[in-house]
Structures are given as C-alpha cells and as structure tokens.
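Checklist before submission:
- one chain only
- standard amino acids only
- sequence pasted in full

Submission:
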Amino acid sequence: MLNISEYPFVYQDEDYIYLYKHQPITDSRLELLTKGTISFTKPDKFNDPFDCVYAVDESYHYSVEEIQKKFLELFKQKISNEEAMHYEKESIEKENQAINDLTYFADINSLMGICCLNHNPLNILMWSHYADFHKGFLTEFKFRKTDLFNPSLNYLNFFPIPVSYMDEMLVIDRETRLDPNGKIIEIYTSKAAEWSYEKEFRVIRPNTSESIQKLPYDDLICSVIGGLKISVADEKKLEMICEAENIPYYRIQRISNTYKLTVPNHHQLDVEKKN
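Returned file contents:
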C-alpha cells in the first residue's frame, strides 16, 4: 500500500497538494458546490467488476476444526472428523464458486462507501469516462500538507488514500480472514494495473448506508473547471453557482493541434504558461 507522503504529486505547491473529481452536470452533483455534499459509492456500482475483490489461498477456507467448533456452538452437536471433512469440501466448493462469480463479495461490499478523487485532471479519458464526454465539470480540492503527512483531526473523516495498481490480485489468507482490520484499506485501494492512468485516490467510509455525505469543511474546494464541450446553459449555471459560492471558475481548452488540454490562467493547470 502506497503511503500518501511518498506519492509523486505533480499538482502541488509549498503548502498544498491538489486532487480532482470529474463529474457530469446534474442537480445532485452540483450540490457538491452549493451544499458541500459528495457521493460515497458502493463498490457494486463501480465500472470495474474486479474492483474491491480479492483472491484467496487454501488456508482462507474454514478448516475441519473450525467446522466442528461451529457445529458445537450453533447446534450443540459434536460431529466426527469424517463429517467435518465432508462439510469442509462442500463449503470450499461453494465458496470458490461464489468468489469466482463475484457474488461472494456482495454483502461485504454493501457496508462500504467510497469517494473517488484523482490526480490526473487533464487526462482526456478521465473527462470522457467521468465527466459526460467532456460536457461536465471538474472540481479541484486542496489538502494542506502539514495535515495530510502528519495525521491530523482536520482530515479524520475525509482522508484520501492513493490507489495501488497491481498486476496480480491481492491474496487473502486465513490470518486475514480472522482479523481483517489490517487489510481492509489495502483491499479497497488496490486495482488492476490497467486502471493506472486514473491516478485515483479514495476516501473510505466503512459501515455506512448514506450514499451522499457532507464534506467535513468548506475550504477543500478551491476551483471549478468546465469541460471542453460544456453547453452554454450548463456553463452559465456553473458560473452562477461559483459566483454565489465565491469559487473561482475556469474553462478547459484544447492545446492546438495536440491531444492535450490546458486551463488558461489556472494556478496549477495552465500547461502552456508553465512551459
């Protein structure tokens, strides 16, 4: 798991690091700017079915001894080794089937809420996939380094964790099954290497049923950027909201004759000015 203090931040200054969220323009998404509310998504809503799942080794499954103990606890019944071995075989087959078809993770993941940010604001795929084909908007968040790198109460309820991109799926064993707390963050911040272009960060809230939650404080949002293909009406709506909320508004542009984007006059994203 990658420590945030070791992350190779591109968008930063002396005091802050900057993270971003690409979104379509809908009434609920715009409430991020007007009410400070943001979505915490259940993993089953993610576009990657392999997200927030894991592989298991042989020790993960219930042993003969554990099955005998369970029968004694639940049914006050003592079963033989042969009977326990039969139940063990059945249990492993059913569990492996559920793990392979991903149904095994449904109940586990239903308790988890995840808010996704990223550190790749100018990537054209991010705008295509998450901001309504460049018709949406980008919100820029700033996080004070002194609070992020030295744990502080300021970010206790909204702490972004960098995602680790892996060639092989995370493997969970019996020890982790018995005491999962040490692995929960790693499980929910690991993704296949193919997704590495996203440069994703996650805020994780376990045991939550609320899909929309309020940010802990207002000064996280520092600018809003309209997409390349934003409509006139949507841009006017964004500009009015930003003016009312005192949030700087910008419009993204294409760098002529390239696949690249820039945000003129923006403190971090004016690529041409930096060059």
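Reviewer check: The mean pLDDT is 93.
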